[in-house]
């Protein structure tokens, strides 16, 4: 049993599936009716009007209605759209047990403890028939799916079959109809001599106790019943009689309900013995039992069209399937092999030709679990797995006949070829003549085509295997997926995924998608996780399209996923499908009926995003102009990815346009949107942005619209527009804003206006002082007379202060800030730059730790990254004698920018003293009692070394660093300690190092590396690495990034130190080539990885080590270098592949995992003893144990 949904509630007494939507109704013993979405696992609605338990519930098959019946003797008809009860039918005199709609007529049938069965017309809301005859409670009554029959079950130990054709004739119009019958039907007058409404056709007796349930078979003349005598009985009937066929025994308590399987010869029953049993209808034997520990079952329901069942118990209900419905298939090129109705079939996608290839042997009663196809041998392996009985799982090995599907007779019934069958949980091909089998003991067996064991692989926790290419397997162990080499019996890589169910490879085997129940993980070939996507509903299937986009399906959607983690919905689905192939905008798939289907999708959205990611701006421009990209999701995506100017072309909503225009600094569009919105807050935001850009004309308009007179006056002042400033003074006068008017008069230097304002405010003393000071004698005299004897004194040394006059009025806008061009203005330039499409070797490193350096910044230089100009003799058969020149321009200080703006914390800030002058203290000053300083609190309450450094307690900081990360030499920490301590004396708040500051310094170190300033770069990387133990982190993500920062710095320090050592041994070509080979295995940023592989391939080629050179060239091409580098590399590869031999063997095995000794620069292969630095993790030979680490020069190596 596969449980799809489970709910918790009071006892469930009734269940009903909606015929089309993924809904199920439950009626509870508490009187509540619940409507659930079993696909989304959510409660949609509750209906609570019954008084007491509700036992009967049923959806109408066409109208938005359902009917319920309860212990309050009421039948209620509900409309679930309007969420209310439409009407109530009254007539029963006791509990109502079941209620059902008729499949065609406007009838409801109800069974009651009043020993009657009633049929109601829900349109006229009247009872049209009362069926009596049972002499005990009627537990169930149902209509026949097609005929005019009713079956009823009662505690009187009988089952009755009723003929209601007379009721149909009286109540349903069916031409030709006589006038008399029409009058009779409309007036309700009885037919005194005609047929009765309902007559008993058969009485089925055989149960020893009361019968709880009876139901018709959907197509056959069969009835199945369940009773308190703990048995299930099967009955057959014809026009004349009905008889018992057989009895199914097995329940050990009352059987509550029983139903037929709609598509198979199965019967399902449940009972108070807390079990659900599945019976074979032909053999009448139990083939499966599902039990619950504490819950009795009361009701069963079957979906009218889908392979779904529901069972209600004491504490809720479950929705389940008996078996998985996923079809098994294998895709090879344009061919799809799949199994349908015990036949292996082949579908040609291009021509839609679908032919049966052969008939398969019969096996256990379970669908096939998986299929693996071998195109070389034209053979398939089919696995059959029984979930409840894993020990019975088997696989069949078939060789498909060569002429299968070719002859005309093959379309009828091709014979089954001889197949080999053995036990095993799963089987997949690993080579042309080898396949791997996971047996029941979880041992992997490698077998040949004759089904003979050639090798055994013992793994402790392996519970599933998947295909991974020739000689390789994907192994599922607990919550990990590992890439396993079956030949060498070792794990190559692993990734954390919770219970992956399917593994789907891209066409070129470069990318892998792992599907779990609610999770999708995309990895590269080395199982480095590129993205992870969570889903709320089960993930069903998927396939890669030719552009590297993964198209997958859930229960109700077709979706896409890009390798950077972007994902979205393409279209919705009514029923789940299983994708087999993607070609353009066509999705080839199989449905649950194993019917090939072709669906059309619109790939515009994910192609648009893919073009943005790959920087193919020509395609972006074309889609913007031609495609119909709409919706908030694409706008939010463009805004999130930093393309608000592109999003502007899709937005019609003015408010959204305004926000996007401000974000990309487009004042013109923002002004247009602000005018349309005419909102005060919009004008204020526009004024702020326009002021930042120096567009004071727009600022003036915005201030005028918002009537912000203060800011407007100041704007006129700084632009020298005195005329408008005087107008603002007049406006202030009209507004009676005395304070604003006086302020503007001061800015204008208008003394008379200020004197006038002071007089009006009755500030005559101030007015007199101002008039007398500024030489307004006449006004001063007048004010003096009005002041009587209280005349203030005038300072004879007062100086006239007047605002400076503007040199020239600024009419035009100020020189605008430079706004970077978007992809539309600069598309012609940007699109010419090559886009890196290869996978990043540091995909697991967050973006902010990635190198902000392009290959073009370094490609024009020689130095260590590229050898001197090399003339290579190529094979004369293909290209004659031609040279591959490693381009080299003159090099100054390096390839990239030399003007670097270093963060403030990199500057050497000296420690400043904070002591005051002792002479300032007076003789009578008494010092207060000395308390604890803030730094002392830090020392006492913190275990962070950085807090101790900030408080100048260097000794305790060194002790903590020694205890926590094993630092023994603090010479390298001297400058770091001084810089951190000085910051605590020069900042308002003393805070430790933040990750962001180290990331900024990391970018500087990357640039120094690119510019070939190796010693400076080593010092920078070492300082960053030593600073990591002093970081203050805030989240688990910061901890992860700090660990990655240590790994990056260690790899670069080893690489750069080896580069400097390589220059000292330039004459030893073999050793130099070995070091170049070792460089390629260090985890560097993509741009540096490309340079390293290019240098190594050229150097190996010069030494005529063609095998190694070819390996380097292939790895380089996988990274997607620039076109000129790619062209040179392909030439090297073409020469090397013709003679893959090394003239000078190197101490280097690229297939055997190794570490590089950071002191001697020799390889330490896996399994050999080594010593490591406790902080950086750098590896050393055992002879260097106890010495200082060469990477950080602060720790000693430990074994």
UniProtKB/TrEMBL annotation:
Segments of skewed composition (Acidic residues): 890-904
Q: Name one GO biological process term.
A: retrograde vesicle-mediated transport, Golgi to endoplasmic reticulum
**Signal peptide interval:** none
The Gene Ontology terms for molecular function here are: structural molecule activity
Q: Where do the segments described as Disordered lie?
A: 403-422, 877-919
Q: For the Coatomer alpha subunit C-terminal domain, which residue ranges apply?
A: 990-1195
Question: Where would I find the COPA/B second beta-propeller domain in this sequence?
Answer: 346-591
- Name the SUPFAM superfamilies for this protein: WD40 repeat-like (SSF50978)
- COPA/B TPR domain: which residues? 631-775
Q: Which cellular compartments is it found in?
A: Cytoplasm; Golgi apparatus membrane; Cytoplasmic vesicle, COPI-coated vesicle membrane
**According to its record, what are the GO cellular component terms?**
COPI vesicle coat; Golgi membrane
The name under which this protein is listed is Coatomer subunit alpha
